[in-house]
Amino acid sequence: MFRHSKSKLGFFCSGQLDDKQKIINFTIVDSGITIKTNINRYFEDLKKDNKKILDFSKFNELNGYDAIKWALENGNSTTGKGGFGLNLLQELILKSGGRLEIISNDGYFYINNGIIREQKLDYDFEGTIVSIGLSTDINRLCIIKGDNNDKN
After folding, report:
1. What residues pair up with 60 in beta bridges, in sequence order?
2. How many CA atoms lie within 13 A of 19 on its CB side?
């Protein structure tokens, strides 16, 4: 997250273990550039540098929730490598029945027990919030194998 946000303040993290409900909740917040800004800058740079052959004639600036959806797709990366971190997290959340909320700029994405919601917000949050809830119940243990190509 820090690699993408370029936040001068870093990021803030808070967590809580709920033994009764067997859930660990944690939230990461940064005040850096948003997912929307990062992705739109990436596409603008690609257009200027013509590094990749892409059809930019259909490209319009992404809003916040479309940018989050793009970032969640396997293989999509603004660093040119990787592109599986958020996708892997989303897969883990879906398979384990967990919770994931992402707020970045005017985008909102939410998964809870397999139910997915996404929307464009009526306001801008200048930063990114990622909130995760994972079951600690051994019966809900889920192992996801990631892509080993990203060694960073």
Report:
1. none
2. 0
Determine the pLDDT at residue 96: 84
**Residue where the block lists tokens 């273990």:** 17
Q: Is residue 24 part of a domain?
A: yes
Domain count, the chain: 1
Ramachandran area for residue 18 (φ above 0: left; ψ -120 to 50: alpha; else beta): beta
Pick from 61, 83, 72: nearest CA to 116: 72
Closest by Cα among 44, 28, 41, 47 to 100: 28
108/124 Cα distance (integer angstroms) = 10
Rg of the chain, C-alpha, whole Å: 16
Let me know how many helices (H) and strands (E) the chain has, helices first. 4, 4
- Domain containing residue 115: 2-140
Domain membership of residue 83 (yes or no) is yes
Residues of the chain with pLDDT under 70: 1-10, 50-59, 81-84, 141-152
